[in-house]
Amino acid sequence: MLHYKVAIIGAGPAGYFAAQALHNLQNDERTFSIDMIERLPTPWGLVRSGVAPDHPKIKTVSKVFEKIAADPNFRLFANVEIGTDITVAQLAEKYDAVIIATGSSIGKKLGIPGEDLYGSISAADFVPWYNAHPDFADLDVPLDCESAVVIGAGNVAMDVARILALEPTELDPTDTADHAIDALKKSEVRDVYISARRGPEHAAFTSPELRELPKLEHTNVVITRHDIDAAIVRAGEAPEKDVKSNLDAMVLIADSQKSEHERTMHFLFQHTPKEILGANRVEGIVYSTPTGEVTIKCGLVITAIGYQAATINGVPYENGKVVNIDGRVKENIYVVGWAKRGPSGVIGTNKSDAAAVIDLLISDLSEPKNEIGIENLLTTHVVVDQLSWQRINEAETAAGEPKGKPRVKSVDRHELLKLAGL
Description:
This protein has helices at 13-24, 46-49, 56-59, 62-69, 88-94, 123-130, 155-165, 178-185, 207-212, 225-235, 241-255, 338-341, 349-364, 386-400, 413-419; strands at residues 2-9, 30-38, 74-78, 97-100, 106-107, 120-122, 147-151, 191-195, 219-222, 263-268, 272-277, 284-289, 292-297, 300-303, 307-308, 317-318, 321-322, 328-330, 333-335. By secondary structure, the protein is α/β, with parallel strands linked by helices. It folds into two domains: 2-105 and 308-419, NAD(P)-binding Rossmann-like Domain (Rossmann fold, 3-Layer(aba) Sandwich); 109-305, FAD/NAD(P)-binding domain (3-Layer(bba) Sandwich), CATH 3.50.50.
């Protein structure tokens, strides 16, 4: 029986699905011990700090993660930072394989004048702010304006626009960060514009997200029917299934528009941002459109135009992702998820992606190294293991129960370690 040790860097969906694929490929000839390393004191990655809090069903995948973590050959090393507390080179020396599953956490830039003004922020900062990520709890989000603009045509942009346009009490039964709910309840934003460079037929929204919008109880959703009709013509007689589904959903919105609410979400297509206006803070945005330049007055601009991976010393990066061939980076180092392929797909996409990389990893294995793992390198470091994480998890869910919430998240690292019993 050959026993291999594998380190996974990152405790998000890609990391857990990689662990699951390894577990599934154990047999009479080989077994795997898995050490999962996470920078934050809490695991689950985007399921905890990225998924919109008003979409709790998507978060139920965490039950799958907990099942994977229950394997006796699985260990969690959270609150451990690669490059500071331990290096990739040390991991590569001690483990038979190292899998990078760090995702993409840095928002891409527009590259236009005014992007650095106060009131211009990235969805890569705003989303973790309302999701109680410790690194973003103190983000300054100016909500003292009537209009906000969200730039992007994917589900992240839609989540951001929806959070801004919702009646904030709708977030009370969710696990939205308390500081975000408080700020949104004081928000003066009443008009939210979500803008896309191209036409509706090119939008990367998914149709289930679009079909949820008419169900909003306190928000008007406005799509110009002319835009959709023109997109249907451009898409042709046999559009792709996803395109047709999106356009059908947009037709429903356009034909059932409400106007009785004080909050409105407006969709703008074929609007290319040229410049963000303002002296000391955002005051407006200039777009190029097929009919000429258009200026929208606003006090907040949030860009949701894609993500790129934060770099790790000793790992090659290019175009915002880890340089790899089918998931292989270099000797005994592999990559899965967004860090491998860029920010695309939904949470489930990471499952098939990870399975393919694990097949490659297994085909590369030779004799096990039989080295001791990283625990002897972290003897003076405060590590959140699986048991400590369970204490945090139980404390947060217990705090949420009397408030009718799934949990009340702690946003302070010291508080999280205290809940962990450390």
